[in-house]
Batch of 3 targets.
Target 1
Amino acid sequence: MDEAKELERFDDKIEQEIRIEPKDWMPDDYRKMLIRQISQHAHSEIVGMLPEANWITRAPSLRRKATLLAKVQDEAGHGLYLYCAAETLNISREEMVDQLLSGRAKYSSIFNYPTLSWADIGAIGWLVDGAAIMNQVPLCRASYGPYARAMVRICKEESFHQRQGYEILLTLCRGSEEQKAMAQDALNRWWWPSLMMFGPNDDASSHTAQSMKWKIKRFSNDELRQKFVDVCKEQADILGITIPDPDLKWNEESGHYDFGKINWDEFWNVIKGNGPCNKERLQARIESHEEGAWVREAALAYAEKKKKSELVGSPSN
Amino acid sequence: MSNQSEPLWEVFIRSKQGLDHKHVGSLHAADAKMAIENARDVYTRRMEGVSIWVVESKYIHATNPDETESLFDPANDKVYRHPTFYDLPDELKYM
Ligand SMILES: [Fe+2]
Ligand SMILES: [Fe+2]
C-alpha cells in the first residue's frame, strides 16, 4: 500500500479512537514523538526514586518505612512498564539507558530538587505524585496501545502514593508547632516546582498541538495545571498550611483559582542541567549502572552455560 | 559495559484459579527462572496473580496487521453463526 493511503488509514483510526498497535503502520514523527515522551517518562520514574530513597533508612517509624519502600519499588516498576512500552517502537533498552546516562535524555525537572527534611517525603507524595496523576490519567486513553495499557497499570498504583504523602503531612500538621512548620517549609519549596511539572505554557509548548491531534495528550499543559491548582488549594486548607502564592485567589467568573506567575527561567535552567541536584542524580544512575555490570554479565554467562549443558544432556534421562 | 543484552520475555498471568493466563507485558531477563522471578516482582506486587507464564518474545508468531481484513472479515457476513439469526416464535421457552 502506498504511503498516502497508509496515512489516511492511520488518521482514520485516530479519529475513530481505534488504538494503534506496535506492528501497525504509523508516521515516523508519531513514532519519534512517542519514543521521546515514553522514554522521558520512564527515566523520570527511575530518577524519581533517588530523592525519596534518601529517606528510607531515616523514616520515623516502621510503618512509614514500609510504605515508602513499597512506593519507591512501585516507581521502579513504572519505569520498567514504560521502557517496555517504548521498546515496542523499535528502540532498545540499552539505547534508552545510554541516552539517560550520557545526559542526552531529559527527565522531569522536579527530581533535581533535594529532599531536605522528612516533610519533603510528604510533599512529594501529595504534590509530585498528585501532579503526575493529573498528567497520567488522561494518558490511559493515549492512542498508542502499549503506552495506554502501561498507564492504566501505573495509575492504579499511584493513588496510594499520593495518599501516603498526604497522610505524612496531615500527621505533621496535627503535631507540634515545629512539625507544622516543617510541613509548611516543604510546601514552600515544592509548590512552584510541582506546577512546573506540567511543562511550559501552551503558547510556548512546541509539541502540544501535534500531540493532541494524534490523541497522545488529551489536555493541554495549562488546562491540567489549572485543575491541579484548584484541587490543591482545598487540600492545603484541610492541612491548615498556606500555598506560597500571594496571587492565589478564587475567581468567581472563571470558576477557578487565579495564581501567580511561574518562574520559567528557573524551569529552563534546571532542564539545562543547572538545578541543585542534576549532577548528583546522574552520577547516582551512572554508578549504579556500572556497579551492576558484573551482575548482568554473570547472569548472561550462567544462562549461556546452562543452555549448553542442557544441549549435551545426560543419556540416562 | 556489556554489549550483549538480556533477551526479552512476554509475561502471562493467571489472576485467579479458573481463569486463563493473560498477557500483561514484557521484561528482560537472562534466563527463564530470572524472568519468572522478575515478573513476580514487576507484575504481581498487589496479588494480581496466582500463576505466571513467561515466553521468550522471539518465539511468538503473530498475524500481520496488513492481512487483518482477509483473515478476519470472512466471519463478518456469516451472521447465521449467531443464535439471534433464527426467527422463532416468542412463545417458545427454554431455547
Ligand atoms: Fe510512578
Ligand atoms: Fe508515584
Target 2
Amino acid sequence: MAYLDNIFFVILLALGGGYFAMNVKKLIRNIKLGRDINRTDNPSARWHNMALIALGQSKMVRRPVAGILHIFVYVGFVIINIEVLEIVIDGIFGTHRVFSFLGGFYSFLIGSFEILALLVIVAVVTFLIRRNIVKLKRFIHSDLKGWPKSDANYILYIETVLMVFFLVMNAADYHLQLLGFGDYHHAGAFPISQFIQPIFNGMDSGVVMMIERAVWWMHIIGILFFLNYLYYSKHLHILLAFPNTWYADLNPKGQFDNLESVTNEVKLMMDPNADPFAAAPPADENAVPQKFGAQDVQDLNWVQLMNAYTCTECGRCTSSCPANITGKKLSPRKIMMDTRDRLEEVGRNIDANKGVFVPDNKTLLNDYITPEELWACTSCNACVEECPVNISPLSIIIDMRRYLVMEQSAAPMSLNAMMTNVENNGAPWQYSQQDRLNWKNEN
Amino acid sequence: MENLTVPTMAEMLATGQQPEVLFWVGCAGSFDDRAKKITKAFVRILNRAGVSFAVLGTEESCTGDPAKRAGNEFLFQMQAMMNIEVLNAYEAKKIVTACPHCFNTLKNEYPQLGGQYEVIHHTQFLKSLLDEGRLTIEGGQFKGKKITFHDPCYLGRANNIYEAPRDLIEKLDAELVEMKRSKANGLCCGAGGAQMFKDAEPGNKEVNIERTEDALETQPQIIAAACPFCNTMMTDGVKAKEREADVKVMDVAELIANAQDL
Ligand code: SF4
Ligand code: SF4
C-alpha cells in the first residue's frame, strides 16, 4: 500500500508524457507537409540568432513594458521547472524535497523560485489587465475573436494558478517544518510563502499536511495539463521559438527567393540554341509538375508552416502593418493564424483518412485568406522586423500572390497593365525604351 | 539647356574605356517627371566631383522589381536575365542607383541569376565621395533648416541602411528631426510591393497620408526622401494636407546639389 502513491504518480507521468509525445509527433508530421527548403547554411549565425532572439528575448524588449514583464514570466517559467524535476523525483521515489541535501544552495534556489513566482504573478496579472481592462488595440482586434482570445486568457489563468499552488505548497511545507512534523525536515528558504504560512496557524497539522499533499499533486497535474495544452494553443511558441529562430531566413529582408523552377524555364526560353522539343523531360514520368506559388498549406515550405505553429498571436506585426493601420483587411497575424488553422484542418483530414489527405474542396487561398488581403501588402517588411520570434508573414503573402498571378492570371487589372508594359517596353509605364535617355536633354 | 555630361556604356566601350561606376537610372528616374529631377541632381554632383560614370541609356530595362513583388516571377526573371546579359557584356563591376527598389533587386536578387556586382545606393555613394574628399558639402541654403528623413523600406528594413542618408543631411548643417516612427520602425509610404501601380484596397485612409502626418508632426521645412516612389507619395501627401507652400519634399541628392548651387 505504501507504494500506491508512487505507482499512481508514475502512471500519471506516463499518460501526460505519452499524450504530449503523440502531439509532438503530429506536429512534426504536419510541419513536414510543407515543401523542402534548405536552411542549414551558416550555422554559427543561426545559433547566434537563436541565443539572442529566443533565449535572450532581444526582440521582445522593443516594446519595453510587455518585454520586461514577459522576461519575468519566461525566466520564472524556465527556472521554476528545476523545481518540477524535484517534484518528479520525489513523486517516483516517495522522497520529500530530495535536493535539500544541497543545504544553503537549496535555500537559495527555493528562495529565488519564490521571488520569481511572485514576479510571474505580477506580470501575468498585468497581462490580464492589458488584455481585458485596458484593452490594448492589438488584443481586441477582430483576428482574435473566439478561441484565440479565450486561449490567451486561459494561459494567464493557468499560470497564475500554478504559481499560487507553488507558493501555497511551500507555505504549508514551511508551516510543518516549523512544527517539526513527520518527514518535514528543515529545508529551503521561503521569502514569499512565509507570509502565507500564518493562515495555517491553529489548523490541525494533519489537515495542513493534507493541504500540502493536495497542492503538491495539483501542481504537478497542472503542469502536465499545461504541457498537453500547448499543442492546442499559441503557447506552443515556448518550444518552437527556438527552432523557429534557428531556421529563420538569414538573407537581407528585401531579398525574395528566386523560384528555381521558373529559372529553368526562362533559361530555356532565352537560349537560342535550346531545342524546344527536347525540352527537359521530367526526371520522373509521374512527377506532378510543381505549382508556381502557394494555393494551400502543402505548397508552402516547412519553415513557413513551422512559423504558423510558432506564432504567439501577439499582433505586433499587425499593429505595425501600414495596410492594417489604414483600415485594410490585411493583417499579417491573421495570415499566420489562418495558415495554422488550415494546416490543422489538413492534419485532421489525414488522421481521419488513414494517413492520406482526401481533397476537401477547400484551400488556404480563398477559404481562409482572400486575394483582397494579399493585394493590400506593400512588402514593407514591418511585420518581419517586428516579430519577436522571426516569423515572415510576408513570404507567405508573396507565395500566394505568385499563385494568383502565375497559375490563375488573377492580378488586379492595373497590375496586369503594369506587367504588360514591363514586358513590352521595359518599364512599368507606357514609355518606349528608346526614350530612356531623353531626360538628359530635357530642361 | 544645361550642360550635363552623361556618357553611355556603349560610348565608353567605343573609346575603350571602363567607367568607375555604372549609374543605373531606373524607370522612375528615366520617365517620371519628378524623379528625372533627382536623376539630374545626382548627375550634376557626379559631374562636379569628376566621377567617371556611364549609363546604359536605351539598353537599360526595368529590373523586374514591380513584377516580382506582384508575384510574377516569370516576368521578373526574364527582365533580370536580359539585364544581366547587357551588364555582363559591358563587364560592369560597380553599380550605383538612386532607387532603393532597383538597388535591392540588383544587389540581392540578381547574383543567383548570374549577375554579380557591387551595388550601392546613391546616398552611400555620395557619402563615400565625401569621406574620400572628392566632394565637399556646405550647408548653403539649408543651414539650420529643419529636415526630417523618411526611411524607404527597401533601403532601411530591407537592407539595413539607415545612416548614410542621415550623415549627408547632417553635413548640410541642417537640424535633422526624427519622426516617431523611424529607422527600423519607419512606416511605409504606401508605394512598395507594386502598390504604386494599383489602387489601394478599401480602408479608411491612404498610407501616404498616415505617413505624411508622421512627417508633418516634426514641423519640418523639408521632408527628405531617398527613393523616387517615396518622393511621389510624400509629395502627394503634402499636397493633400495643403502644406506644399511651406513644406518641400526633396531627395537627399537634390539637397546636396542645391546646397552647392549646382
Ligand atoms: S510587409 Fe505587408 S503584411 Fe507585412 S507589415 Fe508590410 S504591408 Fe503589412
Ligand atoms: S507573426 Fe510574429 S509578430 Fe505577428 S502575431 Fe505572430 S508572433 Fe506576433
Target 3
Amino acid sequence: MNSYLLKRVMVLFPVLIGMTIIVFSIIHAIPGDPAETILGQKATEQSKQALREQLGLDKPWLQQYFNYMGDLVQGDLGTSIRTKTPIAKEIMPYLAATLELTAASMLFATFVGVNAGILSAWRQNSWFDYTAMIIALIGVSMPIFWLGLMEQMLFALKLHWLPSIGRMDQRNPVESITNLYVIDTILAGDWRQLWTVIKHLILPSIALGTIPMAIIARMTRSSMLEVMNSDYIRTAKAKGLSQFLVVYKHALKNALIPVLTVVGLQTGALLGGAVLTETIFAWPGVGRYIFEAISSRDYPVIQTGILIIAFIFVFINLLVDLLYAVIDPRINYK
Amino acid sequence: MIQPILKIENLHTHFFTDRGEVPAVDGVDLYINPGEVLGVVGESGCGKSVTSLSILKLVPDPPGEIVGGRILLKGRDLVPLKEKEMRKIRGDSVSMIFQEPMTSLNPLFTVGQQIIETVRLHRGLSKKEAREHAVEMLRKVGIPRPEAIIDEYPHQLSGGMRQRVMIAMSISCSPELLIADEPTTALDVTIQAQILDLIRRLNEEQGTAVMLITHDLGVVAEMCHRVAVMYAGKVVEEGSVRDIFKNPLHPYTRGLIESVPRMDETRERLYSIPGNVPILSKEMQGCRFAPRCLDVMDICRQSLPKLTLQEEQHSCRCWLHESQQEDAV
C-alpha cells in the first residue's frame, strides 16, 4: 500500500511538469502585451520596454520558462504583476472560498444524487423513477448561470428567504483564520453569523451542484440496477434482511465504486472554480481570480493558479483511487 | 400420519412478459416430511428453481407472481403472508443455498459479517455471541481454522469453501427446512461429493429436512429419500427413490434414467430424449410431454392427465397409467 502510494505520488511530478509546459505555451500564445495592459495604451515604448525587462518578459520563452520553474522548485510561486503581492498569499482566500462552495455543492449533489439514484433503482419504472430521471436530464442540460439567476429571482428577490450574493453578513464579519467561513464562525463561536454563512451558501451550491447531482443520480441508478440483480442480493433477501438493509447495505456498497469515480471527477471540476456561478453570486472564488488575471495578462497568476488547480485535481483522483481499496477488499494496491 | 413440514398445493407461479403470460410453475403439488430429503429433478426450465424461490416468495416481482395455490409451512399458508412476516421465516425456519457459490456471497463483506448478520437478525444475539456462533457454524461445515477464515472475504476462498460458508450461513439459525438449489453444479466433482456429504450429515445429525433441487440423477440416488420429477412446470412423477429408479412409470422419467451414462454398459452414443422442452404458455393443451413422448396416444394431445397415485406413495401424471387405474377400478 505504501509503495503504491509512493509510486502514485512520483507519477504526480511528470503530470504537473507537463501541465506547466502546456499552460506556459498557451498563455504566451494569447495575443496581448502585459506591459501595455498595465501601463495603458498611451504609455511610451520606452516605459513599456523597461517594464518588460523588469518582469523578465524580454527574455526568450524558454529562458522565461526555466526561470519560472526554477523559482517554483524553490517554493516561490511567483508574484502578481498587477498587485505586486506574492501569489501564494494572495490566492489563499480565493481558494478557501472555492473550497467551501465546492464542499457544500458536492455535499448537496452527492446526498440528493445518490438517494435519488437508489430510490429510482429500487422502484424502477415507478412514477418516482420517471420523475427523478426527467429532473436529472433537465439538470444536466440546464445552463447553470440561468438556474442561478432564477434562484436569485425567486428565493432572494421575491420570497426574501435567502441572500442573493456574497459569503456572509459584512456588517459584523468574523476574523478570517482559515477563510472557510463555516469554520471561522464556529471558531469565533458566532452562531448567528454561522447561520448567515450557511444561508449564503445554499443558492450558489444548489446552482453549482445541480449538474453533478444529476450525473451522480443517473450513475447511481444504473449501478444499483446492475447490482440489485446479482446473486448476493438474492442471498441477502433469502437471509430475511429488510429491504432497507438489502438496498442500503448490501447493494449500495457494491454500487458505490462508479459513483465514487464520478464524485471525484466532479469535485475536481468544481474546485477549478466556476467563473459563471461565482460571478452571478459575487463569490470571491479562484475561478474569478484567474479570470481577472487572464483579462490583465497577469502571467504568473494564471500559471500558478492553474497549476494549483491541476494539483488539487490530481490529488483528488489519487484520493478516490485509494478510497476504492477501502470499499472493495478485492482491490489491492501492491 | 406425520404432518409434513412443507406442503405445496396446486402452486401456480407465472411470469408476465412481453410475449405473454408464462406459467413457469403450473400447478405443482409437493410435500416434505420432517427429516426427509426430497429431490426435485428435471431439465433446465422445468420450473424447479422457480418452485424453490416461490416457497420463500423470492421470485422477482415483476415479472413473476404467485397467482394461485398454497404453500403450507407446518400448516401455515405462506402465500397470503406480508413481506414483514416472510422476512421472519427466511433464513430462520426455512433457508436456502444457491447454485453459484462464487457470486452468492457479497464480495464486500467478510464471511463472518455475513453469517453474524443473519444470526443477530433472527436470534438477537450480542455481537460476541453471534461471532462465537458463526465460528462454531464454520467449524461444523468443515472449514479449517474457522477463527481466521471468519475475517476473510469471499474472494480469498475457493469455490468449495464458499459453498461451505453458504451452508454455514443457511444453517446458522437451525432451519427446519433447507432448500438447496443445485448446490454442487458449479463445483468440481471431488468438491461436489464433499458438499453433498456435508448436506447429508446435517440432515442426519440435525434432522433438517432438505429440498434438493438438481438435474443430476446420480445425486438424487445418492442423497434423497423421495423424488419429484418435474417437466414443463408440473410434477410428472413422484415417489421413493427406490420406486423411481426401479420402476419408473412416466415416459419422461424413464427417458431421464436412460440418459444417465452407466459404467457397466458400452454404448456408442448416450441416449437422449428427442426434442426440446416446450415454450410454456397458457394456451398449452394436453400432456406437456406429448410432443417428445415415444408412447404418445391421441388422448395425450387433447387433455392433461392428473397426478394419480399408482401404488403406495408413488404417483404419476400419465394417460398410460391413468387408464390402467381406471381399468382396475
